[in-house]
Amino acid sequence: MPSRVARIPVLVLIALLAGCGGNERLGLDSSSGAPAASAGNPVAPPSSLAGRWTLSSTGSGSCAMTFGAVPDAAEGTIAPAGGCPFNFFTSRKWTYSEAGLAIRDHNAQTLAQLAPAGPNRFEGKTTAGQDVVLSR
């Protein structure tokens, strides 16, 4: 029969593992166990994103952003110009996946998620729910 001391580490391990089961921390949809919509697989955008873009939001202004990328890249850098609405002045990286275009800040936090809305145009929302458009 196992000693009482030997069972304690096993119980502690079980308790720790039980606390790690949150689907949110794993990037999974809690209802189906499938990957969450914002965590799509990297894919090449419909056209090259490299170059100058204008980010705008009705009533909040607009600013120029320069997207850096190599051809067919699924991610790249962003250099925002002054006067960006909301906190887009902190934009530093973009990624394109099955879920669309994500703009991220200097801490890798998502600022906005956008979907293609025609040639050279993306529309979406900030994480706070404001409508934004990226166009050239």
Describe the structure.
This protein has helices at 4-18, 23-26, and strands at 51-57, 61-68, 75-80, 91-97, 100-105, 110-116, 121-126, 131-135. The protein is mainly β and 136 residues long. The chain folds into 2 domains: 1-36; 51-135, Lipocalin (Beta Barrel), CATH 2.40.128.10. Strands 1-2-3-4-5-6-7-8 form an 8-stranded antiparallel barrel. A hairpin with a 2-residue loop joins strand 4 (91-97) and strand 5 (100-105). It is globular.
Provide key terms for this protein:
single chain; 136 residues; mainly beta; Lipocalin; 2 domains; eight-stranded antiparallel beta barrel; 2 helices
Shape: globular
Largest sheet: 8 strands, antiparallel, barrel
Give the class from helix and strand content and strand pairing. Answer: mainly beta
Task: Please write the CATH class name of the largest domain.
Answer: Mainly Beta
Q: What's the overall average pLDDT, rounded?
A: 79
Low-confidence stretches: 8-38
Q: CATH architecture of the largest domain, please?
A: Beta Barrel
Number of helices: 2
Q: How many β strands by DSSP?
A: 8
- Please write the string of helix (H) and strand (E) elements: HHEEEEEEEE
